[in-house]
Amino acid sequence: MSQNGTTVQNQSSPSIIRPLVILDSRTVQRFYSPLRHLLFGFEAQGITCCVVVPPESQIESFLWPGIEIVRYPALRFGLFYRQNRRRLILQIEEFKPTIIHCFGTAKSLLAKSLGRTLGIPVVLTVSSSQQSFLKRQIISRGVSAVIAPSEHIAESLKKRIPRIAAIIRQVNIGTFVDETCACFSRPDRIPGMVVVSDFLRFDDLEPFLSAVRHLAVNGYEFHVVLMGDGSAQGDVRKFIQGVGLVSIVNISPPMGPLRAVFRGADIFVHPFIAQRFDPAMLEAASAGSAIATDKNNADYFLQNNTTAVFFDSRDELSIYSALQKLLDDREFAKSIASAAQNYLRGNNTVSSMVDNLLKIYSRAASSANS
To answer: Which among 322, 336, 290 is positioned nearest to 193, based on CA atoms?
Structure first.
């Protein structure tokens, strides 16, 4: 049945899908936009959804009307484990989920436990193939499907955990691509670069900062925003002050939504090898920022000199050359930014993401009932 162009599920249908989405606070923060798009997609297709999150998560900022939310644990003391668990089960049973979708491995044990208690299948989205021995054991058992956000991660998971190769599914993260391209859209503005980092290791950022210093010494005008928070931030600040980059490089705490940040940036730089899928890269490309990244981060929509420029993140001169190319040839920079947008328009739609997930949910439910 359809109302105002929106598909509405027949509540008496045995094939009804009611996802219970389980998130940890870190995933809510990192995957703000993809999760928002997913929940919007569920809403557009008439899918009733319930989200389980820790009390401190900021999920209210992107919830849609009609989406139920359960906070767990309600009482944040170990002594209240049983009370928290009982309250959680009661709330979930009232929702009547048909499948559990856990994003990330942080809450995977909770998801699997709830799946056993409720007798419904569990699917797990994994954003990195780099998993500890314990996490590999968790992923290997008790889930109906393991979902990877890119082909590269899917293939790496198959090699690292061969026993789950048959249940690995690849689903592109859906996005809404801007109609305009942010890259050098204002010729009168000083070029801007954005880096999103956890600031965990100074060594990951030092070659990039040295390349930035080299560009500044050679007379290039630009500014850089380093966005994030972490243990290495003190070392980064000392380096910036020590080499005289204070007027060029600014450190900012994490801000959202990222799309608004990237709409004001010309270049997005990913100056280290990513060990996981980075939603910031997708947001930057969707906004139309030109992407400069390590050559080992090549994945589906990233092609050197076509949708991005690559460099060796350990080599200052390699980073310098890539950034110099973008600053010297603005038409080239705009062309790769536009090409990335066009690729995402054809391959990363929200509707395709939701359709693929619903197919996975349906197969998991059918297998569980057979």
So the answer is: 290
pLDDT in tens, 268-327: 999 988 778 889 999 999 999 999 999 887 666 888 999 999 999 999 999 999 999 999
- Are 14 and 154 spatial neighbours (Cβ–Cβ below 8 Å)? no
pTM score of the predicted model: 0.88
CATH number at residue 115: 3.40.50.2000
Which tokens hold the place of 91?
A: 């709330």
Structural domain containing residue 44: 2-174+349-369
Q: What is the distance of C-alpha 308 from the center of its chain?
A: 18
104 part of a folded domain: yes
Tally of domains in the chain = 2
Helices marked H in 161-232: 202-217
E-assigned strand segments in the chain: 2-3, 6-7, 19-22, 50-53, 68-71, 99-103, 122-125, 145-148, 168-170, 192-197, 223-228, 249-252, 267-270, 290-294, 309-311
Which three-class secondary structure state does DSSP give residue 186? coil
CB 227 within 8 A of CB 252: yes
Residue 127 within a domain: yes
